[in-house]
Design goal:
The protein is α/β, with parallel strands linked by helices. It has helices at residues 11-22, 41-46, 60-67, 87-108, 144-161, 185-194, 211-224, 240-251, 262-279, 288-294, 303-309, 317-329, and strands at residues 2-6, 26-31, 50-54, 72-75, 112-116, 167-172, 174-176, 200-201, 205-210, 230-233, 236-239, 258-259.
Length: 333
């Protein structure tokens, strides 16, 4: 198997590349000219059959050239930010980039594509009931440009899977673990906790999945997933307070005891967005959209992946501990 992998310099994509290399696949990894290659160092040192190809999701010609000769595709790359000054940039990467990947795969006669979507595209309710692949949802339910762009990209992948291209979609929940180089918004929770920047918490919830298991789930989807279907790859459903308490047990640092009312969180997000995002041109820690997202617990059910992919739920404690150790070792906190 010769696998073309996008996003391998990032968090989840680097783990997908590692699993594939360990299983003996030849890899061609898409990198941008400006990519930080740190996450590829151990992969290149420990595995054969790994090459890079320079390209960009916003440059279809570069994708078509880079994919030539590959028989499988793992499209993991995405612009994963909850704040973006120029929304068009996110849509060019997440939507048009996915369209270009699928078109290149069709032209090259690729055997199978695994498209990484997100649990963010699922239909969540306000009652905390876990969402699954059949929960009613539409584009109008998507809050913020990240969710909207991922939903639109997923629709492209699902339509391609129903029109002759062998595409399987996976929907990771909230990956956690080592090599979160950016870090992602979830990794930032860990970093902020380590820096003691969590004086209070809001009533919300996430499903945390071990990034290593999530990467293995991608390969299981390649081997066992049904074309045109999507699969939630999830782990533990936890409130934010439970996550912070776990981090406290791991680190010995105090967990916040003050719960911030939703109205105050909303106001804080608005201030951060205006002052830090627009006036100071930085990246706000919270925005109105992130607070609106937090109003619904993003809990999910992975029963379909368990039945069809052999997926197994793993507690988040080990991944949280590895994340803490990695962030500390790499001087994020």
């Amino acid at each position: 198997m010769k696998a073309f992998v996008t996003g391998a310099t990032g968090f989840l994509g680097s783990h997908v590349a590692c699993v594939l290399a360990n299983e003996g696949a030849d890899l061609r990894l898409l990198v941008r000219s400006t990519s930080n290659l740190k996450n590829l160092e151990s992969l290149k040192a420990g595995a054969g059959g790994v090459e890079t190809a320079t390209g960009d999701l916003r440059d279809p010609a570069s994708l078509e050239k880079a994919m030539a000769g590959c028989d499988t595709v793992f499209h993991v790359a995405a612009d994963y930010r909850l704040w973006v000054r120029d929304p068009d940039e996110m849509y060019r990467s997440n939507v048009e980039g996915t369209r270009a990947i699928l078109e290149a795969a069709r032209k090259h006669g690729v055997r199978r594509v695994v498209h990484t979507s997100s649990v963010a595209t699922m239909g969540f309710t306000g009652n905390g009931h876990p969402a699954d692949e059949d929960s009613p949802v539409s584009l109008a339910d998507m809050i913020g440009h990240y969710k909207r762009s991922k939903f639109m990209a997923e629709q492209l992948a699902l339509r391609a899977g129903h029109s002759g291209l062998h595409v399987v979609t996976v929907n990771p929940t909230t990956p956690i673990g080592e090599q979160d180089i950016k870090p992602t918004p979830t990794g930032r929770i860990v970093v902020d906790f380590l820096k003691r920047k969590f004086p209070a918490y809001v009533e919300t919830g996430l499903n945390l999945v071990d990034v290593r298991e999530c990467a293995r789930g991608h390969v299981a989807a390649l081997e066992k997933g049904r074309t045109g279907e999507r699969y939630i790859l999830g782990g533990e459903n936890l409130t934010l307070k439970q996550i912070l308490d776990k981090l406290a047990a791991i680190t010995g640092l105090p967990s916040p005891k003050v719960k911030l009312p939703y109205v105050f969180a909303y106001a804080a997000g608005a201030v951060d967005e205006i002052v830090i995002g627009r006036l100071l041109r930085g990246e706000p820690r919270a925005t109105v959209d992130t607070v609106r997202m937090g109003a619904k617990k993003m809990w999910a059910c992975s029963d379909k992946a368990e039945r069809e992919l052999g997926w197994k739920l793993v507690p988040a404690d080990g991944a949280l501990r590895r994340a803490v150790e990695w962030f500390r070792a790499n001087r994020y906190a």
